[in-house]
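no rush on this but wanted to send it before i forget. what follows is a protein written twice so to speak, once as letters and once as structure tokens for the fold. mainly i need to know what kind of three dimensional shape the backbone takes. thanks a lot i owe you, the record is right below.
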Amino acid sequence: MGSTSGENHGLAGVDRRDLMKRSAALGLLGVPAMGLLAACASGGGDGGPDGGGTKGKTSADNPFGAEKNSKLDVVVFKGGYGDDYAKAWEADFREELGITSTHTGTQEITGKLQPRFNAGNPPDVVDDSGAQQIKVDVLYRNGQLLDLTEVLDAPSVDDPAKKVRDTLIPGTLDPGMQEGKVVALNYIYTVWGLWYSGKLFRDKGWQEPKTWDDFLAVCKDATSQGIGGLAHQGKFPYYINVAIMDLIAKKGGLDAMKAIDNLDPRAFVGSEAAQAAVEAVYEVVEKGYLMPGTNGLTHTESQTRWNQYKAAFITCGSWLENEQLKQTPPDFDMKFLPMPLLPGSALPFEAIRAGSGEPFIIPAKAHNRPAAQEFLRRMLSKEWSTLFAKEANSLTILKDGVDPGVRLRPGTQSTVEASKAAGDHTFRYLYTEWYSEMGTALEAASNELMAKRIQPKEWLKRCQAAVDKQAKDPASKKNHRD
């Protein structure tokens, strides 16, 4: 699982011309989590005015004074994108700056790192993603994240006349913001929606559905042939909320989406879009169109069964293809599908949820802060962005950031084509980054819904209660979308 992303406070501010340039160069045109970090024993602190470790001499090529022969402690979520890209970065870092790395690739981010944060001994750089992600808002409230302003205002590796922030796709910094500060760098350009097998659709004579009625018709036909209509990653209900929340945004438009992010007293109860969306997804449950057993499966288990043609559709983000490389048949022909439309939808079929995912952080008590800052600066260079694309089969938030020789796989190509078709019609929720406790409550309600333990009316009540509870927190007033 990767992680999910942010856009400007309106229709997402991603410059499509920039994305098209990058996609043309390619020859073609990250996850919210379940566990909460307990209150940490040690508060903020920054390890001294320059962070931990010895600061070397600064220069145009080394603006933070990363010290040669020092060591960098890097922890990377080894999920949908693997961690080979980070090993390639670390090898280049060692060759260019003489800085060696301690590398840890793991899916147990909270399990391995919570004790280190509690003890005031965190790593220097963390890819804080996956089902066991340490919630960014929790770390921020405990004073344990470095403000990344210095990194973003540093000269770009590729064009020192520009600041790093000026080389990024507009809007992609938004999900890493807490109270107006960028404290996490969401690195990967991600889209979310439905996925299907081009081969299966050709074999069955199915057409890509553009309306929810057409989607249900495919699910019905699949079920009649012993194939599940929709698979979802039942043990991680974040994924089914891709469908529900996309339907809300497309049915009600940006106002319906922003009502949730802004903790509106009618975000769910009283929202026609929310009611229509949850009733539409529940119809899949009521009519028996779910892949059998999907409610009890992990993300990889459900995805693997989908790869085995046991379901027509699955919900996910664009890390799916890379995560399932070993399980995907060579002729599967993975395809991305925007969420089909409910009647009277405000946004067009082509509209998609898109933005940046996979948050990288520098802990406030990083022992080698100068090297950590330089590491993030180099992540936002064309060389390292290309290394990522080669190893992880995905685009980054860097404009024109991938060498023309890189070719992406079919599923990722289809996301690039979908982004082109969407144009300016992209959107992105921010509550997942701003309010992790609320996000977990919404996921819990969806888990009950998909298991038929509650019905849509109760789902709306539980989700609104979570919004109302979050709205009572004075800190929530510091986050707002216009």
Remarks:
- Residues 3-51 have pLDDT under 50 and may be disordered.
